[in-house]
Amino acid sequence: MATRKIKKKVEFIAIGSELLTSHFLETNSLYLAGKLEELGLQLSYKTVVGDRLSELQEALEVARARSWLIIMSGGLGPTEDDRTKEALSRVLHRRLVFRKDLLGKIKKRFESRGLKMPLSNRKQALVIEGAEILENPNGTAPGLWVEAEEQIFILLPGPPRELKPMVENLVLPKLKNFSQKRLLQAVLRVTGCGESWVEDQLKPVYPELPKNLELITLASPGEVQVRLRLLTEEKRLVQDLRVLNRLKNKILTVLGNRVFSQEDEPLEKVIGSKLAQMKKTLACAESCSGGLLASRITDVPGSSNYFLESVVTYSNESKIRLLGVPEGLIKDKGAVSAEVAEAMARGVRERAGADFGLSTTGIAGPGGGSETKPVGLVYTGLAFPGGVLVEKNFFLGNREQIKFLTTQKALDMLRLKLVELEKKTER
Amino acid sequence: MATRKIKKKVEFIAIGSELLTSHFLETNSLYLAGKLEELGLQLSYKTVVGDRLSELQEALEVARARSWLIIMSGGLGPTEDDRTKEALSRVLHRRLVFRKDLLGKIKKRFESRGLKMPLSNRKQALVIEGAEILENPNGTAPGLWVEAEEQIFILLPGPPRELKPMVENLVLPKLKNFSQKRLLQAVLRVTGCGESWVEDQLKPVYPELPKNLELITLASPGEVQVRLRLLTEEKRLVQDLRVLNRLKNKILTVLGNRVFSQEDEPLEKVIGSKLAQMKKTLACAESCSGGLLASRITDVPGSSNYFLESVVTYSNESKIRLLGVPEGLIKDKGAVSAEVAEAMARGVRERAGADFGLSTTGIAGPGGGSETKPVGLVYTGLAFPGGVLVEKNFFLGNREQIKFLTTQKALDMLRLKLVELEKKTER
User: Fold this and answer.
1) N or C: which end of chain A has fewer CB within 10 A?
2) Does B200 have pLDDT greater than 60?
3) pTM of the full predicted structure?
C-alpha cells in the first residue's frame, strides 16, 4: 500500500442514478470547484455514478487509485438505494459501526416535528470505523470525514441546501489545514463591447502580469467578465493583495466606463443602487423587450423605491394611447424607428413624472423582418432631464436573446447617463 | 484481451479543463442521455477530465476496462490542449494517420470565408487508424467513430451546436444498429396543484402499469410533469404505442383540466395558441409580477397577434392614472387586495379594448410584508367578457420565485377560462 503512488489530485464523485438521466444535472460540483479554488485546490476528475453497489464500488476503487482527496455527494439517505457508506467500507476494508448517539440525534430530529422516526432511518446511524461525523443541520443524513493512509474521503448528502452549509462550516475549515494556498480574486463585469475589444485593451496589461496571477475573460450574451485570480499563501496575503489591486486598477483604466460592476452585480442592481442613492425615478416604455426590461428592474429588492411603471405597448394603438406617440409618426417612420423610440421615451417620462424614461422598439423575430428592417434591428431610447438619446442596434440571436440584449443595452444607456451625472455632481 | 469481461455499459467522458472549474458546467451529457434513452441505452458513468494527456489517458483506460460504448466530447480542436485523439491512440495502440482528403475539406472551410487556414489546424486532419470520420458541418473538428474489438469509441467536438447535429444525423442512426430497443414517451405538464395531489390521483393507475412502462412525476416551481416511458422493440411498436396511449388517456381523465399541455409546451405557448385560434386579445396589469407576465407572453413568436399591452404599475399613482383604480379603494383596502386586483383587471381590459385582462398584485419580498399581508400574498385577477375572477394565493420562495409563481397562476386562470369557452362553443 505504501508503494502506491498517490498524487495530490482531487476528485468529486456525484452518486445517484437520477444524475445519469436526461432530467437532472448535478450542480454541486460547480459550487465545490469554486470553494476548492479558494484554497488553491483544483479538481482533476468529476465522476457521476448510479446507485448500484458494484458500480459505486468500482468508481471508488478508481478514485482510490488516482486521487488524494475524494469528495462524494449523495447516497446517504435511508432507502435501499443509498449505499455510499457500504461501498466505501468495502473499498477501505473497514467495518460499519452503529452509533447509538447518532441514532438519538436523528430520532430527536423527527420528534421535534412531532413525527416518529421510520425504522429505515436507523441505517443513517451507521458510520465507517474511524470516521469523523459531519453534522447536517438541514437533513437526517450526517456526513463523514474519513482519513485512510494518506487519503481523505469526504461523504456529503446530495441536496445542495444540505451540502452547501456543511461544506462552508465544516469541510472548508478542516481542509484549510491541508493547503497553505489561498486564492485572491477580482471580477470586473463589462458590457457594450465584444470579447475581442476587451482582449485588445488588455494587451498592454499581459506583460505586467506576475507569474502567479491569472487573467481570464469570459463572454456571455451582452457581457464580458474579466477575472483576475492570484494564488497566494497566508504569509504573502497583504503583499499579493496589493499586487492584485494594482493590476485591477490598471485594467479599470484601460476598460474605462465599459466596466459596470466590480462587485459581481448584474446591471439592474447597479442602476438600482445608483437611482436609489441619487433619489431619482425611472419609467419604461417597452415594445420589443416585451416586459423583460421591467422584469429585470423589479428583480431587485427595493426597486419600488425608484421604479414607477413600465408600459409594454405591443400594439400601435397602445403606443398612441399610453405614450402619446403621434399616429402620423408611426405611419411615416414605422413603429420600429428612431423617431418612435424617442417619442416613447419622452412620453413615458412625462406621463409618469419620472426623472428618466427608457424605451425599446425593434424586431425580435423570428418573423416580422424585412430587407430594410431585419430581425435584430432595435432602437433604444433614453429621456433624461434635458434631452433624449436614441441608439440604433443590430442584435444577433434568437427571440429571447434579442429581448435580453435589448434590455442590456437600455440599462447600460441609463447607467452611463447616471455615471455622467454623478461626475457632474462631484465637481 | 478476449477474457476481459465487458458488460454493455455506456460511459460519457467530457474533456476540457474548463469543465472542472466553477465557471462551466457541461450540459452535453444531459442531451446525450436523452438521446440514448430513446434507444433504450442508459448511461452508467459520466466522467469529466481535463486536458492533460496523462489524466485523459488514465480516464480512457478506466472506461476501456468497464464500458462497452464510450462517447467523448471535446479536445478535438487545433490547439496544444486538444489531445483526445492522441490519448485514445495510445490507449488502443493504434497509430494516428494523416488524411489528406480531410485536410482539403478543412482548408476549404476557411477559404469559403475568405480566410487562410492556420498551420495549427493541420492537426485536425489526423485520424486514428481504422476510424470512420463523422463530418462536422458546423466546425473544423471532425468527429470519429472507432470500433476496437467489441467496444465502440465515439469522439465528438465539445460545443453543443456542433455536437448536437452530429449526434442526431450521424451517431444515432449508426447506434440504432446496436440496439433493438426503442423508447416511447408521453409528457403531461400539470399546474395548479402539488406533486402529492398528482401522486394521489395516480394511485389507481399504478396497478394497471405493464412491467415495461415507467411512470414518473417531476416537480418544479409551479409545475408537475408526469412522464410515461415505455421501452419497446421495433416489432412491438404499434402494439406498445396503443398501451402507452391507453394509459395516457387514463391519466388525462384522473388529472382532468390540471393538465395544460400534452405537447411539452410551456403555459405561455398554450394560452397563446388558444388566443390566436379563438381570435381573442389580451392585456395585462402587473404589480408584483413586475413585467414578467408580459415577458413570458412575448417570449412566444407571433404573440403580437393577440397580445396588446401590459401596464406594469409599481406605484399607486400609476395604478390610478393608467388603470383607473379608484384612489379611495387603494386607501381603504390597500394596493395588495382582492378589490384592487379586480379593478386592475377590469381597468386594463376596458382601456386596451381587449377580450381578456389579467392582473397581479402582491408582496414579492423580501421586504414589505406584515402580519396581515405577509411576503408571498398575491392576488391574481382575470376580467373576461361577462365578469371578473380574483384568486388569493400564498406563494413560498424568494423574490424571483414568487414573481414566477404569480405569472404561472395568472396564465392558468386565463387557460381555464379559455378551455371553458372552447367547450361552450363546441356544444
Assistant:
1) C
2) yes
3) 0.90
From residue B5, give the alpha-carbon distance in Å to each of A398, B13, B61, B91.
48, 21, 14, 18
Angle between helices B338-352 and B316-323 (to 10 degrees): 40
Question: Side by side, which strands form the sheet with A151-156?
Answer: A132-134, A143-148, A151-156, A69-73, A10-15, A43-49, B43-49, B10-15, B69-73, B151-156, B143-148, B132-134
Cβ neighbours of A247 (radius 10 Å)? 19
Are A20 and B46 a contacting pair at CB < 8 A? yes
Instruction: Say if residue A370's pLDDT is above 70.
Output: yes
Measured CA to CA in angstroms, residue A224 lies from A30, A194, A217, A259, A296 at distances of: 20, 7, 7, 9, 19
B218 backbone dihedrals φ, ψ, rounded to 5°: -125, 120
Residues of B in contact with A43 (CB under 8 A): 20-21
Q: Which residues of A touch B368 (CB under 8 A)?
A: 304
The four Cα atoms A418, A420, A426, A427 give a dihedral, to 10 degrees, of: -160
Locate cell 394611447: which residue? A321
Which of A10, A328, A293 lies closest to A171, judged by CA?
A10
| B window 315-334, beta carbon within 8 A of A | 315, 317-318, 321-322
The answer to whether B292 contacts A295, with C-beta atoms less than 8 Å apart, is yes
Between chains, do A403 and B299 touch, taking CB under 8 Å as contact?
yes
- Half-sphere exposure (CA, 13 Å, Cβ side) for B77? 12
Q: Do A308 and B322 touch (CB under 8 A)?
A: no
Q: What average pLDDT does chain B have?
A: 94
Question: Which one, of A289, A284, A292, lies nearest residue A308 by Cα?
Answer: A284
Assess contact for B154 and B148: CB atoms under 8 A.
no
Q: Apex CA A377: angle with CA B299 and CA A325, to 5°?
A: 85
Q: d(Cα A11, Cα B48) in Å, to the nearest integer? A: 10
Residue in B with minimal Cα distance to A9: B55
CA distance A210 to A246: 11
Dihedral pair phi/psi, residue A269, rounded to 5°:
-75, -40
Would the CB atoms of B45 and A45 count as touching at under 8 Å?
A: no
CA-angle at B384, arms to B379 and B385, nearest 5° = 155
Q: Which residue of B has its CA nearest to A284?
A: B312
Residue bearing the bigger pLDDT, B246 or A109: B246
Name residues whose C-beta falls within 8 Å of residue A325's C-beta, 6 or more positions apart in sequence: A319, A340, A343, A344, A347
Residue B105: what residue type? K
User: Does residue A4 have a pLDDT over 80?
Assistant: no
Note whether B62 contacts A: Cβ–Cβ < 8 A: yes
Res. B6: pLDDT tops 90: no
pLDDT value of residue A183: 92
Q: Determine whether the interchain pair B399/A310 forms a contact, defined as Cβ–Cβ distance below 8 Å.
A: no
Q: Give the separation between CA B127 and CA B117, rounded to whole angstroms.
A: 19
Look at residue A218 in the predicted model and tell me its pLDDT. 87
Average pLDDT over residues A233-262: 95
Q: Which of A195, A185, A191, A187 is closest to A262 using CA atoms? A: A187
Residue B7: the pLDDT is 62
Please tell me if residue B136 touches chain A, with a CB cutoff of 8 Å: no
> Is residue A230 within 8 Å of A212, Cβ to Cβ?
yes
The answer to whether ipTM exceeds 0.85 is yes
| Cα separation, B126 vs A88, whole angstroms | 42
In DSSP terms, B359 is beta-bridged to B285, B381
pLDDT at A1: 37
Phi, psi (deg, nearest 5) at residue B16: 155, 125
Query: Mean pLDDT, to the nearest integer, of B2-19?
Result: 78
| Alpha helices for A95-215 (secondary structure H) | 100-111, 160-166, 172-175, 195-202
The separation between CA B9 and the C-alpha centre of its own chain, rounded to angstroms, equals 26
SS3 for A313?
strand
Determine contact: A159 vs chain B, CB below 8 A.
Answer: no
Mean pLDDT, residues B129-133 taken together:
96
